[in-house]
UniProtKB/TrEMBL annotation:
GO terms for biological process: purine nucleoside catabolic process. It comes from the Eukaryota. The keyword Hydrolase applies. This is Inosine-uridine preferring nucleoside hydrolase. It comes from Pseudomassariella vexata. GO terms for cellular component: cytosol. Belongs to the IUNH family.
Length: 439
């Protein structure tokens, strides 16, 4: 049976939830999804540290599968064993900013010191030869190399190649980090990029506070210009929401005036992701048996999860039980269950959500029109329009005085923002069971 969903996973694995998202994807069944490519971007730590975390993931899973096999346990991780994703890397910083938006939450390596704590679970530095010229390679390829295909081609070019070679509307991109890779692919070849079936984005904060500034979520804040450019492809008039900030460093061109279609973009902001918690007590109850048995994966995950809970307690105190919000894994849950009626859009349909790129205090903010006014064509009495499809058709594209197109029928973005899942209390148990089986 062909995989239900084929995805390019664009990630900044300098955070615990990124790693859990990749683990959930690799622990799924081939009937649910296939990871065609892992597109690596920078995040809370530099790009090379992010790439090391991805390579370490394959290294640990290789050890875990061998351990499970020796113990007579089900091997799990069927997607990992069925497919070999390409791994490619993007630029080291945002389109226009060279300083990373680091917050230090996940530690210097992005995983709370796991490489130092368990050096036997970190790959030898010879892995760098897969991605860089002039780096000494291993005398013999380690077994974990068999789980992925390294590429020295820039990530955004690999994205375009895959979209061009595969049938249209068969590849979904899940973007759970700064959207620099995505914006570069869209700018280089918009029509090829629009062959994507769906762009699933974890990012932003709409009706809740941000997690890096009062109004901005980290992924969007880290490269607001990239996010704004990608969001503009959901509009019938992309120029209406493109960033006004001059591109002096990246030099990305504007989009053509006419494109063949609009981008289908599904957004998972902090509004929906934050309540999906993996609580401290539940995590330790779930993993203790596997730790005692000697699971390499349990040892690895326990280290960075313990660091995460300590960091949460340091920030918010110990009055309430700490929980990790499963931001990035939620996009994978959506991919494997998107037919579930429990997934519901905010306000029942598409929204005009725009990204602030030039505000001193609002950089990266997701902006919506809260005035409650009707958009053009929504119950407003108008005369015949130039786009009429028949003698009695009545249409309107613009409303007088609406200079920024918030009420326009054509201008503005059209985002599918998800507000409800099949259940905030269901996800953490499903995640832990997928990774380790039933206790």
């Amino acid at each position: 049976m062909a995989p239900r969903n084929r995805i390019i996973f664009d990630t900044d694995p300098a955070g615990v939830d990124d790693m859990l998202a990749m683990l959930l994807a690799l622990a799924s069944s081939p009937e649910e999804l296939e990871i065609v490519m892992l597109s690596v971007t920078y995040g809370n730590v530099p790009l090379k540290s992010c790439l090391k975390n991805v390579v370490s993931l394959f290294h640990v899973l290789d050890k875990e599968i061998a351990w499970r096999r020796a113990q007579g346990k089900p091997q799990g991780f069927e997607v990992l064993r069925a497919f070999k994703p390409i791994v490619a890397i993007g630029p080291e910083h945002a389109l226009e900013e060279e300083i990373l938006a680091e917050d230090g939450f996940h530690g210097a390596d992005g995983l709370h010191g796991v490489h130092e704590a368990h050096p036997h679970l970190s790959p030898a530095e010879t892995w760098k030869s897969l991605f860089e010229e002039g780096v000494p390679s291993a005398a013999e390829d380690p077994s974990y190399y068999s789980h992925f295909i390294p590429s020295r081609t820039p990530a955004h070019k690999e994205i375009l190649r895959i979209l061009k070679e595969e049938p249209e509307d068969t590849i979904t991109i899940c973007a759970v980090g700064p959207m620099t890779n995505i914006a570069m692919a869209a700018a280089e070849d918009p029509e090829t990029f629009l062959r994507v079936k769906e762009l699933v984005v974890m990012g932003g904060a709409v009706d809740v506070e941000g997690n890096v500034t009062p109004v901005a979520e980290f992924n969007t804040f880290a490269d607001a210009i990239a996010t704004a450019r990608v969001f503009a492809l959901t509009s019938a008039v992309p120029t209406s929401t493109m960033p006004t900030v001059p591109l002096t460093k990246s030099g990305l061109p504007p989009y053509p005036e006419k494109l063949s279609k609009r981008l289908r973009l599904s957004l998972f902001p902090l509004d929906i992701t934050t309540p999906h918690l993996l609580n401290k007590s539940f995590f330790f109850d779930s993993i203790t048996t596997h730790l005692k048995e000697g699971s390499p994966l349990a040892t690895w995950i326990n280290t960075f999860m313990s660091g995460t809970f300590r960091q949460i307690e340091r920030i918010v105190g110990t009055d309430e039980e700490p929980g990790l919000s499963l931001h990035d894994p939620l996009t994978i849950w959506y991919m494997i269950t998107h037919g579930d009626p429990g997934w519901k859009l905010a306000k029942g349909g598409q929204e005009d959500i725009r990204v602030e790129t030039s505000g001193q205090w609002t950089h990266g903010m997701h902006v919506i029109d809260r005035r409650g006014r009707k958009r053009a064509g929504e119950g407003i009495a108008v005369g015949l329009g130039v786009d009429s499809q028949g003698p009695d058709a009545v249409t309107i594209d613009e409303i007088t005085g609406d200079d920024f197109g918030w009420l326009s029928a054509k201008r503005g973005n059209r985002i599918n923002r998800y507000a409800e899942s099949p259940g905030t209390d269901k996800f953490a148990p499903l995640l832990m069971e997928r990774l380790f089986g039933k206790n």
